[in-house]
Amino acid sequence: MEAVQNEKGQISIHTENIFPIIKKFLYSDHEIFLRELVSNAVDATQKLRQLASFGEFGGELGDLKVTVSLDEEAKTITISDNGLGMTADEIKKYINQIAFSGATDFLDKYKDKTDDKGQIIGHFGLGFYSAFMVAERVDIVSKSYRDGSEAVRWTCDGSTEFELSPAERADRGTDIILHIAPDSEEFLNKGRLQGILDKYARFLPVPVEFDEKVVNNTTPIWTKSPADLTDEDYKTFYRELYPMGEEPLFWIHLNVDYPFNLTGILYFPRIKNELRFQREKIQLYSRQVFITDEVKDVVPDFLMMLHGVIDSPDIPLNVSRSFLQSDANVKKINGYITRKVADKLNDLFNADRKAFEEKFDDIGLFIKYGILSDDKFWEKAKNFVLLKNTEGEFATLDEYREKVQANQTDKNDTLVLLYTSDRKQQDAYIESARRRGYDVLLMDNVIDAHFINALEQKLEKVHFQRVDADSLDKLIDKGLNNESVLSEADQTKLKDVFDQVLDNKMLNVSVEAQPVDELPVTITLPEFMRRMKDMSALSGEQSFYGNLPNTYNVVVNANHPLIGKILAEADADSQKSLVKQVYDLALLSQNMLTGSELTAFVKRTVAAL
Protein backbone atom coordinates (compact mmCIF):
# COMPACT_ATOMS: atom_id res chain seq x y z
CA MET A 1 0.00 0.00 0.00
CA GLU A 2 1.21 3.49 -0.82
CA ALA A 3 2.02 5.56 2.27
CA VAL A 4 -0.31 8.41 3.11
CA GLN A 5 1.15 11.79 2.20
CA ASN A 6 0.26 15.16 3.65
CA GLU A 7 -1.97 16.81 1.12
CA LYS A 8 -4.14 19.85 0.72
CA GLY A 9 -6.64 20.40 -2.03
CA GLN A 10 -9.99 21.62 -3.27
CA ILE A 11 -13.19 19.58 -2.91
CA SER A 12 -14.57 18.86 -6.39
CA ILE A 13 -17.86 20.69 -6.48
CA HIS A 14 -19.52 22.96 -8.99
CA THR A 15 -19.98 25.91 -6.68
CA GLU A 16 -18.11 27.30 -3.72
CA ASN A 17 -21.44 28.01 -2.06
CA ILE A 18 -22.37 24.31 -1.63
CA PHE A 19 -22.07 24.37 2.16
CA PRO A 20 -24.50 27.23 2.80
CA ILE A 21 -26.90 25.48 0.44
CA ILE A 22 -26.53 22.23 2.37
CA LYS A 23 -26.99 23.96 5.69
CA LYS A 24 -29.99 26.06 4.75
CA PHE A 25 -31.89 24.25 2.03
CA LEU A 26 -30.81 20.68 1.38
CA TYR A 27 -32.22 19.33 4.64
CA SER A 28 -35.33 20.81 6.18
CA ASP A 29 -34.49 19.49 9.65
CA HIS A 30 -30.94 19.72 10.98
CA GLU A 31 -31.32 16.65 13.20
CA ILE A 32 -31.14 14.61 9.98
CA PHE A 33 -27.32 14.80 10.18
CA LEU A 34 -27.25 12.03 12.77
CA ARG A 35 -29.51 9.76 10.72
CA GLU A 36 -27.31 10.22 7.65
CA LEU A 37 -24.01 9.61 9.44
CA VAL A 38 -25.25 6.62 11.44
CA SER A 39 -26.79 5.17 8.26
CA ASN A 40 -23.47 5.57 6.47
CA ALA A 41 -21.71 3.80 9.32
CA VAL A 42 -24.22 0.96 9.09
CA ASP A 43 -23.56 0.80 5.33
CA ALA A 44 -19.85 0.40 5.89
CA THR A 45 -20.51 -2.38 8.40
CA GLN A 46 -22.96 -4.18 6.13
CA LYS A 47 -20.57 -3.96 3.20
CA LEU A 48 -17.82 -5.64 5.19
CA ARG A 49 -20.20 -8.42 6.23
CA GLN A 50 -21.13 -8.97 2.59
CA LEU A 51 -17.51 -9.02 1.45
CA ALA A 52 -16.86 -11.71 4.03
CA SER A 53 -19.80 -13.72 2.65
CA PHE A 54 -18.35 -13.31 -0.87
CA GLY A 55 -15.00 -14.62 0.35
CA GLU A 56 -13.29 -11.30 -0.32
CA PHE A 57 -12.53 -10.59 3.34
CA GLY A 58 -10.90 -13.37 5.32
CA GLY A 59 -10.27 -11.58 8.58
CA GLU A 60 -12.28 -11.66 11.80
CA LEU A 61 -15.48 -9.65 11.62
CA GLY A 62 -15.60 -9.32 15.38
CA ASP A 63 -18.39 -7.47 17.16
CA LEU A 64 -19.83 -5.35 14.35
CA LYS A 65 -21.49 -2.22 15.68
CA VAL A 66 -21.84 1.54 15.38
CA THR A 67 -21.09 3.81 18.33
CA VAL A 68 -22.27 7.38 18.88
CA SER A 69 -20.25 9.33 21.45
CA LEU A 70 -20.84 12.76 22.96
CA ASP A 71 -18.12 14.91 24.54
CA GLU A 72 -19.86 17.97 25.90
CA GLU A 73 -16.62 19.53 27.13
CA ALA A 74 -14.81 19.20 23.81
CA LYS A 75 -18.09 20.02 21.99
CA THR A 76 -17.82 17.01 19.70
CA ILE A 77 -20.07 14.21 18.51
CA THR A 78 -18.33 11.13 17.12
CA ILE A 79 -19.89 8.39 15.00
CA SER A 80 -17.66 5.30 14.89
CA ASP A 81 -17.87 1.99 13.06
CA ASN A 82 -15.66 -1.05 12.56
CA GLY A 83 -16.74 -1.64 8.99
CA LEU A 84 -14.88 -1.29 5.69
CA GLY A 85 -12.93 1.82 6.44
CA MET A 86 -11.38 3.90 3.66
CA THR A 87 -8.01 4.44 2.08
CA ALA A 88 -6.75 7.90 1.20
CA ASP A 89 -7.74 7.33 -2.42
CA GLU A 90 -11.26 6.27 -1.42
CA ILE A 91 -11.65 9.36 0.74
CA LYS A 92 -10.62 11.49 -2.20
CA LYS A 93 -13.15 9.73 -4.40
CA TYR A 94 -16.12 9.43 -2.06
CA ILE A 95 -15.72 12.53 0.09
CA ASN A 96 -13.89 15.09 -2.03
CA GLN A 97 -15.87 14.40 -5.18
CA ILE A 98 -19.41 15.01 -4.03
CA ALA A 99 -20.95 13.60 -7.20
CA PHE A 100 -19.77 10.05 -6.40
CA SER A 101 -21.66 7.68 -4.12
CA GLY A 102 -19.92 4.92 -2.22
CA ALA A 103 -23.09 2.89 -1.90
CA THR A 104 -23.85 3.14 -5.62
CA ASP A 105 -20.30 2.21 -6.57
CA PHE A 106 -20.36 -0.79 -4.23
CA LEU A 107 -23.67 -2.05 -5.58
CA ASP A 108 -22.48 -1.67 -9.16
CA LYS A 109 -19.38 -3.71 -8.40
CA TYR A 110 -21.17 -6.49 -6.55
CA LYS A 111 -24.63 -6.41 -8.17
CA ASP A 112 -24.26 -10.01 -9.39
CA LYS A 113 -23.50 -11.20 -5.88
CA THR A 114 -25.77 -9.01 -3.80
CA ASP A 115 -29.40 -10.01 -3.33
CA ASP A 116 -32.32 -7.57 -3.30
CA LYS A 117 -32.00 -7.16 0.45
CA GLY A 118 -28.31 -6.25 0.34
CA GLN A 119 -28.85 -3.70 3.12
CA ILE A 120 -26.87 -0.90 1.49
CA ILE A 121 -28.73 2.03 2.93
CA GLY A 122 -27.40 5.33 1.80
CA HIS A 123 -25.02 7.48 -0.16
CA PHE A 124 -21.59 8.04 1.36
CA GLY A 125 -21.36 11.36 -0.39
CA LEU A 126 -24.01 14.03 -0.04
CA GLY A 127 -25.40 12.33 3.07
CA PHE A 128 -22.04 12.79 4.74
CA TYR A 129 -22.08 16.51 4.01
CA SER A 130 -25.17 16.91 6.19
CA ALA A 131 -22.56 16.98 8.99
CA PHE A 132 -21.83 20.60 8.05
CA MET A 133 -25.34 21.63 9.03
CA VAL A 134 -24.23 21.39 12.67
CA ALA A 135 -20.41 21.27 12.59
CA GLU A 136 -17.87 24.03 12.02
CA ARG A 137 -15.22 21.38 11.39
CA VAL A 138 -15.41 17.71 10.51
CA ASP A 139 -12.60 15.15 10.89
CA ILE A 140 -12.62 11.69 9.38
CA VAL A 141 -10.18 9.15 10.79
CA SER A 142 -10.35 5.92 8.82
CA LYS A 143 -8.43 2.72 8.23
CA SER A 144 -9.36 0.36 5.40
CA TYR A 145 -9.97 -3.36 5.89
CA ARG A 146 -7.44 -4.03 3.09
CA ASP A 147 -4.17 -5.64 4.13
CA GLY A 148 -1.36 -3.16 4.68
CA SER A 149 -3.64 -0.15 4.84
CA GLU A 150 -2.59 2.91 6.79
CA ALA A 151 -4.90 5.11 8.78
CA VAL A 152 -5.73 8.48 7.28
CA ARG A 153 -7.20 11.73 8.59
CA TRP A 154 -9.36 14.08 6.49
CA THR A 155 -10.21 17.51 7.85
CA CYS A 156 -12.48 20.24 6.48
CA ASP A 157 -13.69 23.45 8.11
CA GLY A 158 -16.75 23.90 5.94
CA SER A 159 -14.97 25.71 3.16
CA THR A 160 -14.13 23.97 -0.10
CA GLU A 161 -10.60 23.24 1.20
CA PHE A 162 -9.61 19.95 2.83
CA GLU A 163 -6.48 18.50 4.40
CA LEU A 164 -5.42 14.85 4.20
CA SER A 165 -2.72 13.43 6.48
CA PRO A 166 -1.52 10.19 8.17
CA ALA A 167 -3.36 9.23 11.36
CA GLU A 168 -3.20 6.78 14.24
CA ARG A 169 -5.87 4.08 14.32
CA ALA A 170 -5.18 0.49 15.34
CA ASP A 171 -8.20 -1.24 13.81
CA ARG A 172 -10.20 -0.99 10.60
CA GLY A 173 -13.21 1.30 10.47
CA THR A 174 -14.09 4.99 10.50
CA ASP A 175 -14.61 7.77 13.04
CA ILE A 176 -16.55 10.85 11.96
CA ILE A 177 -15.79 13.62 14.47
CA LEU A 178 -18.08 16.65 14.41
CA HIS A 179 -16.86 19.84 16.07
CA ILE A 180 -20.24 21.37 16.78
CA ALA A 181 -20.81 24.98 15.68
CA PRO A 182 -22.01 27.56 18.24
CA ASP A 183 -25.43 27.83 16.59
CA SER A 184 -25.99 24.06 16.89
CA GLU A 185 -25.02 23.42 20.49
CA GLU A 186 -28.53 22.12 21.18
CA PHE A 187 -27.16 18.82 19.87
CA LEU A 188 -24.54 18.68 22.64
CA ASN A 189 -27.21 17.22 24.86
CA LYS A 190 -27.51 13.55 25.71
CA GLY A 191 -31.32 13.62 25.77
CA ARG A 192 -31.49 15.38 22.40
CA LEU A 193 -29.24 12.80 20.73
CA GLN A 194 -31.10 9.94 22.39
CA GLY A 195 -34.37 11.28 20.98
CA ILE A 196 -32.95 11.48 17.44
CA LEU A 197 -31.59 7.94 17.66
CA ASP A 198 -34.90 6.65 19.02
CA LYS A 199 -36.64 8.22 16.05
CA TYR A 200 -34.34 7.24 13.19
CA ALA A 201 -32.18 4.34 14.38
CA ARG A 202 -34.50 2.19 16.47
CA PHE A 203 -34.67 -0.60 13.86
CA LEU A 204 -31.30 -0.32 12.09
CA PRO A 205 -29.87 -3.75 11.14
CA VAL A 206 -26.54 -3.22 12.98
CA PRO A 207 -26.32 -2.57 16.76
CA VAL A 208 -26.02 1.14 17.52
CA GLU A 209 -24.57 2.06 20.91
CA PHE A 210 -25.08 5.35 22.70
CA ASP A 211 -24.30 6.11 26.32
CA GLU A 212 -23.11 2.49 26.73
CA LYS A 213 -26.48 1.06 25.66
CA VAL A 214 -27.71 -0.48 22.40
CA VAL A 215 -30.55 1.76 21.22
CA ASN A 216 -32.03 -0.41 18.44
CA ASN A 217 -33.79 -3.65 17.65
CA THR A 218 -31.81 -5.06 14.72
CA THR A 219 -34.41 -7.63 13.67
CA PRO A 220 -37.90 -6.06 13.81
CA ILE A 221 -40.67 -8.51 12.99
CA TRP A 222 -41.35 -7.11 9.52
CA THR A 223 -37.97 -8.57 8.49
CA LYS A 224 -39.10 -12.06 9.53
CA SER A 225 -41.32 -14.64 7.89
CA PRO A 226 -44.98 -14.62 8.99
CA ALA A 227 -44.66 -18.38 9.53
CA ASP A 228 -42.14 -17.70 12.30
CA LEU A 229 -44.36 -15.22 14.15
CA THR A 230 -47.20 -15.60 16.64
CA ASP A 231 -50.16 -13.30 17.30
CA GLU A 232 -48.41 -12.21 20.48
CA ASP A 233 -45.32 -11.20 18.47
CA TYR A 234 -47.46 -8.87 16.34
CA LYS A 235 -49.21 -7.41 19.40
CA THR A 236 -45.91 -6.89 21.22
CA PHE A 237 -44.47 -5.06 18.21
CA TYR A 238 -47.58 -2.88 18.03
CA ARG A 239 -47.07 -1.90 21.67
CA GLU A 240 -43.43 -1.12 20.84
CA LEU A 241 -44.56 1.23 18.07
CA TYR A 242 -47.51 2.77 19.93
CA PRO A 243 -47.11 2.34 23.70
CA MET A 244 -50.34 4.26 24.42
CA GLY A 245 -52.47 2.63 21.71
CA GLU A 246 -55.34 0.20 22.16
CA GLU A 247 -54.80 -3.37 21.02
CA PRO A 248 -55.33 -3.60 17.23
CA LEU A 249 -58.17 -5.57 15.66
CA PHE A 250 -55.96 -7.47 13.22
CA TRP A 251 -52.98 -6.91 10.93
CA ILE A 252 -51.58 -7.55 7.45
CA HIS A 253 -48.00 -8.68 6.90
CA LEU A 254 -46.70 -7.25 3.61
CA ASN A 255 -43.92 -9.09 1.80
CA VAL A 256 -43.26 -8.72 -1.92
CA ASP A 257 -40.03 -8.76 -3.94
CA TYR A 258 -41.35 -8.30 -7.48
CA PRO A 259 -41.83 -5.99 -9.33
CA PHE A 260 -40.63 -3.95 -6.33
CA ASN A 261 -39.34 -4.66 -2.85
CA LEU A 262 -41.73 -4.05 0.01
CA THR A 263 -42.08 -5.42 3.52
CA GLY A 264 -44.07 -4.19 6.47
CA ILE A 265 -46.98 -4.70 8.81
CA LEU A 266 -50.22 -2.71 8.74
CA TYR A 267 -52.49 -2.77 11.78
CA PHE A 268 -56.22 -2.05 11.84
CA PRO A 269 -56.83 0.05 14.96
CA ARG A 270 -60.06 0.49 16.86
CA ILE A 271 -61.21 3.91 15.70
CA LYS A 272 -64.99 3.71 16.03
CA ASN A 273 -66.75 6.63 14.37
CA GLU A 274 -64.14 9.30 13.79
CA LEU A 275 -61.76 10.35 11.04
CA ARG A 276 -58.37 10.41 12.73
CA PHE A 277 -55.24 10.85 10.63
CA GLN A 278 -52.73 12.49 12.93
CA ARG A 279 -52.12 10.58 16.13
CA GLU A 280 -50.46 7.27 15.35
CA LYS A 281 -49.17 7.30 11.80
CA ILE A 282 -47.75 4.67 9.49
CA GLN A 283 -43.96 4.86 9.54
CA LEU A 284 -41.93 4.60 6.34
CA TYR A 285 -38.49 2.99 6.41
CA SER A 286 -35.84 2.32 3.79
CA ARG A 287 -33.87 -0.79 4.74
CA GLN A 288 -34.75 -0.26 8.39
CA VAL A 289 -33.82 3.46 8.42
CA PHE A 290 -36.76 5.64 9.44
CA ILE A 291 -37.59 8.10 6.66
CA THR A 292 -40.91 9.78 7.44
CA ASP A 293 -44.43 9.27 8.73
CA GLU A 294 -45.89 11.37 5.90
CA VAL A 295 -46.79 8.48 3.62
CA LYS A 296 -49.76 9.82 1.65
CA ASP A 297 -48.22 9.05 -1.74
CA VAL A 298 -47.31 5.48 -0.80
CA VAL A 299 -50.40 4.49 1.16
CA PRO A 300 -53.90 4.94 -0.33
CA ASP A 301 -55.69 7.88 1.22
CA PHE A 302 -58.41 5.73 2.78
CA LEU A 303 -55.80 3.64 4.61
CA MET A 304 -54.03 6.60 6.23
CA MET A 305 -55.89 5.72 9.42
CA LEU A 306 -54.06 2.40 9.63
CA HIS A 307 -51.01 2.04 11.83
CA GLY A 308 -47.74 0.19 11.34
CA VAL A 309 -44.58 0.10 9.24
CA ILE A 310 -43.71 0.01 5.54
CA ASP A 311 -40.13 -0.66 4.45
CA SER A 312 -39.04 -0.36 0.83
CA PRO A 313 -35.75 0.50 -0.87
CA ASP A 314 -37.69 1.15 -4.09
CA ILE A 315 -39.52 4.26 -2.95
CA PRO A 316 -37.70 7.19 -4.56
CA LEU A 317 -36.50 9.80 -2.09
CA ASN A 318 -34.77 13.09 -2.59
CA VAL A 319 -31.20 13.50 -1.44
CA SER A 320 -32.26 14.19 2.15
CA ARG A 321 -34.58 11.15 2.14
CA SER A 322 -37.30 13.40 3.51
CA PHE A 323 -39.83 13.59 0.72
CA LEU A 324 -41.50 11.05 -1.47
CA GLN A 325 -41.58 11.60 -5.19
CA SER A 326 -44.45 10.18 -7.17
CA ASP A 327 -43.30 7.75 -9.82
CA ALA A 328 -44.29 4.37 -11.24
CA ASN A 329 -42.97 2.38 -8.27
CA VAL A 330 -44.88 4.47 -5.76
CA LYS A 331 -48.10 3.96 -7.75
CA LYS A 332 -47.47 0.20 -7.95
CA ILE A 333 -46.85 0.02 -4.20
CA ASN A 334 -50.01 2.03 -3.54
CA GLY A 335 -52.04 -0.38 -5.69
CA TYR A 336 -50.45 -3.43 -4.06
CA ILE A 337 -51.34 -2.21 -0.57
CA THR A 338 -54.93 -1.57 -1.66
CA ARG A 339 -55.19 -5.08 -3.09
CA LYS A 340 -53.65 -6.73 -0.01
CA VAL A 341 -56.03 -4.92 2.33
CA ALA A 342 -59.06 -5.84 0.21
CA ASP A 343 -57.98 -9.49 0.06
CA LYS A 344 -57.43 -9.62 3.83
CA LEU A 345 -60.88 -8.17 4.54
CA ASN A 346 -62.48 -10.54 2.05
CA ASP A 347 -60.72 -13.52 3.67
CA LEU A 348 -61.89 -12.45 7.13
CA PHE A 349 -65.47 -12.08 5.87
CA ASN A 350 -65.51 -15.50 4.20
CA ALA A 351 -63.71 -17.30 7.03
CA ASP A 352 -65.87 -16.07 9.92
CA ARG A 353 -68.88 -13.92 9.03
CA LYS A 354 -69.95 -13.52 12.67
CA ALA A 355 -66.51 -12.28 13.80
CA PHE A 356 -66.42 -9.91 10.82
CA GLU A 357 -69.79 -8.46 11.80
CA GLU A 358 -68.57 -7.97 15.37
CA LYS A 359 -65.63 -5.93 14.05
CA PHE A 360 -67.63 -3.98 11.49
CA ASP A 361 -68.41 -1.01 13.71
CA ASP A 362 -64.63 -0.48 13.88
CA ILE A 363 -63.61 -1.36 10.31
CA GLY A 364 -66.68 -0.01 8.50
CA LEU A 365 -65.13 3.46 8.31
CA PHE A 366 -62.09 2.08 6.43
CA ILE A 367 -64.24 0.11 4.01
CA LYS A 368 -66.67 2.93 3.28
CA TYR A 369 -63.88 5.45 2.86
CA GLY A 370 -62.15 3.03 0.49
CA ILE A 371 -65.30 2.62 -1.59
CA LEU A 372 -65.57 6.41 -1.84
CA SER A 373 -61.99 6.93 -2.96
CA ASP A 374 -60.83 3.88 -4.92
CA ASP A 375 -62.76 2.13 -7.71
CA LYS A 376 -60.48 -0.91 -7.61
CA PHE A 377 -61.17 -1.33 -3.92
CA TRP A 378 -64.92 -1.00 -4.59
CA GLU A 379 -64.79 -3.96 -6.99
CA LYS A 380 -63.76 -6.23 -4.12
CA ALA A 381 -65.39 -4.40 -1.21
CA LYS A 382 -68.91 -4.52 -2.69
CA ASN A 383 -68.97 -8.19 -1.73
CA PHE A 384 -68.15 -7.66 1.96
CA VAL A 385 -69.29 -4.13 2.85
CA LEU A 386 -72.21 -4.49 5.25
CA LEU A 387 -75.38 -2.52 5.90
CA LYS A 388 -76.74 -2.51 9.45
CA ASN A 389 -80.37 -1.85 10.36
CA THR A 390 -81.84 -0.40 13.54
CA GLU A 391 -82.33 -3.94 14.89
CA GLY A 392 -78.57 -4.53 14.72
CA GLU A 393 -78.86 -6.99 11.81
CA PHE A 394 -76.16 -7.01 9.12
CA ALA A 395 -76.53 -7.71 5.41
CA THR A 396 -74.41 -7.41 2.29
CA LEU A 397 -75.66 -5.12 -0.48
CA ASP A 398 -77.12 -8.06 -2.42
CA GLU A 399 -78.68 -9.62 0.69
CA TYR A 400 -80.33 -6.36 1.68
CA ARG A 401 -81.73 -5.72 -1.78
CA GLU A 402 -83.34 -9.16 -1.73
CA LYS A 403 -84.72 -8.55 1.76
CA VAL A 404 -86.56 -5.25 1.12
CA GLN A 405 -87.22 -4.95 -2.60
CA ALA A 406 -90.72 -6.47 -2.49
CA ASN A 407 -92.00 -3.88 -0.03
CA GLN A 408 -89.76 -0.86 -0.68
CA THR A 409 -89.86 -0.50 -4.46
CA ASP A 410 -91.68 2.62 -5.61
CA LYS A 411 -93.93 3.20 -8.62
CA ASN A 412 -90.88 3.97 -10.79
CA ASP A 413 -89.33 0.60 -9.96
CA THR A 414 -86.66 2.28 -7.80
CA LEU A 415 -85.62 0.56 -4.60
CA VAL A 416 -85.93 3.05 -1.72
CA LEU A 417 -83.66 2.37 1.26
CA LEU A 418 -84.80 4.16 4.39
CA TYR A 419 -82.22 5.10 6.98
CA THR A 420 -81.73 7.01 10.21
CA SER A 421 -78.69 9.00 11.25
CA ASP A 422 -79.86 9.26 14.86
CA ARG A 423 -81.86 6.34 16.17
CA LYS A 424 -83.02 8.09 19.35
CA GLN A 425 -83.90 11.47 17.87
CA GLN A 426 -85.76 9.94 14.91
CA ASP A 427 -87.44 7.15 16.86
CA ALA A 428 -91.01 8.26 16.09
CA TYR A 429 -90.29 8.17 12.37
CA ILE A 430 -88.60 4.77 12.67
CA GLU A 431 -91.61 3.35 14.46
CA SER A 432 -93.91 4.77 11.82
CA ALA A 433 -91.87 3.06 9.10
CA ARG A 434 -91.94 -0.24 10.98
CA ARG A 435 -95.71 -0.12 11.19
CA ARG A 436 -95.71 -0.09 7.39
CA GLY A 437 -93.41 -3.12 7.33
CA TYR A 438 -90.43 -1.06 6.16
CA ASP A 439 -86.85 -1.72 7.27
CA VAL A 440 -84.68 1.19 8.44
CA LEU A 441 -80.89 1.23 8.11
CA LEU A 442 -78.64 2.77 10.73
CA MET A 443 -76.37 5.24 8.93
CA ASP A 444 -74.72 7.19 11.72
CA ASN A 445 -71.12 6.90 10.56
CA VAL A 446 -69.22 10.15 10.14
CA ILE A 447 -68.89 9.64 6.35
CA ASP A 448 -72.26 8.01 5.69
CA ALA A 449 -73.67 11.04 3.87
CA HIS A 450 -70.90 10.64 1.27
CA PHE A 451 -71.18 6.84 1.31
CA ILE A 452 -74.90 7.01 0.53
CA ASN A 453 -74.20 9.27 -2.44
CA ALA A 454 -71.56 6.85 -3.71
CA LEU A 455 -73.87 3.84 -3.46
CA GLU A 456 -76.62 5.65 -5.36
CA GLN A 457 -74.15 6.21 -8.20
CA LYS A 458 -72.78 2.66 -8.16
CA LEU A 459 -76.03 0.70 -7.68
CA GLU A 460 -78.73 0.66 -10.33
CA LYS A 461 -82.13 2.13 -9.43
CA VAL A 462 -81.41 2.54 -5.71
CA HIS A 463 -82.26 5.67 -3.75
CA PHE A 464 -81.68 6.44 -0.07
CA GLN A 465 -84.13 8.50 1.98
CA ARG A 466 -83.71 9.49 5.60
CA VAL A 467 -86.76 8.29 7.46
CA ASP A 468 -87.71 11.81 8.59
CA ALA A 469 -87.11 13.49 5.21
CA ASP A 470 -90.80 13.46 4.23
CA SER A 471 -94.04 11.62 4.83
CA LEU A 472 -93.69 7.88 4.24
CA ASP A 473 -96.11 7.97 1.34
CA LYS A 474 -93.78 10.39 -0.40
CA LEU A 475 -90.56 8.68 0.66
CA ILE A 476 -91.75 5.46 -0.96
CA ASP A 477 -94.29 6.64 -3.50
CA LYS A 478 -96.18 3.59 -4.71
CA GLY A 479 -98.75 5.67 -6.61
CA LEU A 480 -101.50 5.01 -4.04
CA ASN A 481 -103.40 7.98 -2.70
CA ASN A 482 -104.95 7.94 0.77
CA GLU A 483 -108.46 9.33 0.87
CA SER A 484 -108.82 12.53 2.86
CA VAL A 485 -111.68 13.04 5.32
CA LEU A 486 -111.46 16.77 4.55
CA SER A 487 -112.76 18.52 1.48
CA GLU A 488 -110.40 20.52 -0.68
CA ALA A 489 -111.91 23.72 0.69
CA ASP A 490 -111.26 22.55 4.29
CA GLN A 491 -107.70 21.60 3.40
CA THR A 492 -107.08 25.07 1.95
CA LYS A 493 -108.63 26.69 5.02
CA LEU A 494 -106.47 24.52 7.30
CA LYS A 495 -103.30 25.46 5.46
CA ASP A 496 -104.17 29.15 5.79
CA VAL A 497 -104.67 28.74 9.56
CA PHE A 498 -101.22 27.09 9.99
CA ASP A 499 -99.53 29.68 7.76
CA GLN A 500 -101.01 32.52 9.80
CA VAL A 501 -100.18 31.03 13.20
CA LEU A 502 -96.64 29.85 12.36
CA ASP A 503 -95.87 32.97 10.27
CA ASN A 504 -92.45 31.72 9.12
CA LYS A 505 -91.23 32.02 5.53
CA MET A 506 -88.78 29.16 6.09
CA LEU A 507 -91.68 26.73 6.62
CA ASN A 508 -93.52 25.12 3.68
CA VAL A 509 -96.93 23.99 5.00
CA SER A 510 -98.88 21.30 3.18
CA VAL A 511 -102.00 19.32 4.10
CA GLU A 512 -101.91 15.62 3.15
CA ALA A 513 -104.09 12.57 3.69
CA GLN A 514 -102.16 10.15 5.89
CA PRO A 515 -103.11 7.16 8.06
CA VAL A 516 -104.83 8.18 11.29
CA ASP A 517 -102.08 6.55 13.38
CA GLU A 518 -99.43 8.96 12.04
CA LEU A 519 -98.56 12.17 13.92
CA PRO A 520 -100.94 15.12 13.40
CA VAL A 521 -98.00 17.23 12.17
CA THR A 522 -94.55 16.19 10.96
CA ILE A 523 -91.57 18.43 10.25
CA THR A 524 -89.04 17.34 7.67
CA LEU A 525 -85.89 18.69 6.06
CA PRO A 526 -85.81 17.57 2.41
CA GLU A 527 -83.32 14.73 1.76
CA PHE A 528 -81.28 16.60 -0.83
CA MET A 529 -80.82 19.71 1.30
CA ARG A 530 -80.04 17.78 4.48
CA ARG A 531 -77.53 15.53 2.72
CA MET A 532 -75.70 18.45 1.12
CA LYS A 533 -75.43 20.14 4.51
CA ASP A 534 -74.12 16.93 6.13
CA MET A 535 -71.42 16.57 3.49
CA SER A 536 -70.53 20.24 3.78
CA ALA A 537 -70.15 19.90 7.54
CA LEU A 538 -67.88 16.86 7.17
CA SER A 539 -65.60 18.57 4.68
CA GLY A 540 -65.05 21.47 7.08
CA GLU A 541 -65.28 23.89 4.16
CA GLN A 542 -67.81 26.58 3.40
CA SER A 543 -70.17 25.71 0.55
CA PHE A 544 -73.28 27.06 -1.10
CA TYR A 545 -75.50 24.46 0.59
CA GLY A 546 -73.74 24.69 3.94
CA ASN A 547 -74.49 28.40 4.13
CA LEU A 548 -78.16 28.16 3.14
CA PRO A 549 -80.74 28.51 5.94
CA ASN A 550 -82.83 25.42 6.61
CA THR A 551 -86.21 25.35 4.85
CA TYR A 552 -88.49 22.80 6.52
CA ASN A 553 -91.59 21.06 5.25
CA VAL A 554 -94.51 21.05 7.70
CA VAL A 555 -96.94 18.26 6.78
CA VAL A 556 -100.40 18.46 8.37
CA ASN A 557 -102.16 15.07 8.53
CA ALA A 558 -105.70 15.77 7.27
CA ASN A 559 -106.98 12.46 8.66
CA HIS A 560 -105.81 12.88 12.24
CA PRO A 561 -108.63 13.60 14.77
CA LEU A 562 -106.69 16.51 16.34
CA ILE A 563 -106.53 18.26 12.96
CA GLY A 564 -110.28 17.97 12.59
CA LYS A 565 -110.63 19.49 16.08
CA ILE A 566 -108.43 22.45 15.10
CA LEU A 567 -110.50 23.06 11.97
CA ALA A 568 -113.74 22.96 13.98
CA GLU A 569 -112.52 25.30 16.76
CA ALA A 570 -114.48 28.55 16.57
CA ASP A 571 -112.45 30.52 19.13
CA ALA A 572 -109.42 32.08 17.37
CA ASP A 573 -107.20 32.03 20.47
CA SER A 574 -108.02 28.37 21.21
CA GLN A 575 -107.40 27.45 17.58
CA LYS A 576 -104.04 29.23 17.64
CA SER A 577 -103.11 27.43 20.88
CA LEU A 578 -103.95 24.04 19.35
CA VAL A 579 -101.92 24.77 16.21
CA LYS A 580 -98.95 25.77 18.37
CA GLN A 581 -99.37 22.63 20.44
CA VAL A 582 -99.34 20.15 17.54
CA TYR A 583 -96.53 22.06 15.82
CA ASP A 584 -94.43 22.02 18.99
CA LEU A 585 -95.12 18.30 19.33
CA ALA A 586 -93.63 17.87 15.87
CA LEU A 587 -90.62 19.98 16.86
CA LEU A 588 -90.24 17.96 20.04
CA SER A 589 -90.18 14.70 18.06
CA GLN A 590 -87.23 16.09 16.08
CA ASN A 591 -85.44 17.42 19.18
CA MET A 592 -85.88 20.92 17.78
CA LEU A 593 -87.90 22.44 20.63
CA THR A 594 -85.67 24.39 23.00
CA GLY A 595 -85.48 27.47 25.24
CA SER A 596 -88.53 29.63 25.82
CA GLU A 597 -90.55 27.74 23.18
CA LEU A 598 -90.08 24.52 25.16
CA THR A 599 -91.04 26.28 28.40
CA ALA A 600 -94.22 27.66 26.82
CA PHE A 601 -95.09 24.18 25.45
CA VAL A 602 -94.73 22.61 28.90
CA LYS A 603 -96.93 25.29 30.45
CA ARG A 604 -99.67 24.80 27.83
CA THR A 605 -99.53 21.05 28.28
CA VAL A 606 -99.83 21.28 32.09
CA ALA A 607 -102.73 23.74 31.79
CA ALA A 608 -104.60 21.35 29.48
CA LEU A 609 -104.41 18.40 31.92
Automatic annotation (TrEMBL):
Residue numbers binding ATP: 36, 40, 81, 86, 101-102, 174, 321
Subcellular location: Cytoplasm
Main location: cytoplasm
Source superkingdom: Bacteria
Region of interest (C), residue spans: 535-609
UniProt feature coiled coil, ranges: none
GO molecular function: ATP binding; ATP hydrolysis activity; ATP-dependent protein folding chaperone; unfolded protein binding
GO cellular component, one term: cytoplasm
InterPro entries the record matches: HATPase_C_sf (IPR036890), Heat_shock_protein_90_CS (IPR019805), HSP90_C (IPR037196), Hsp90_fam (IPR001404), Hsp90_N (IPR020575), Ribosomal_Su5_D2-typ_SF (IPR020568)
Oligomeric form and interacting partners: Homodimer.
Family (UniProt): Belongs to the heat shock protein 90 family.
Protein name, as recorded: Chaperone protein HtpG
Gene: htpG
